[in-house]
Amino acid sequence: MGRRKIGAPPEGRRAKKPNLVAAAVELAGGPSAVARLCGVRRQSVYLWINEWRVERLIDALKLSRASGIPIEKLAGEAFDELEYPVKTPTRAPSGRPSKG
Question: How many structural domains compose the chain?
Answer without folding.
Answer: 1
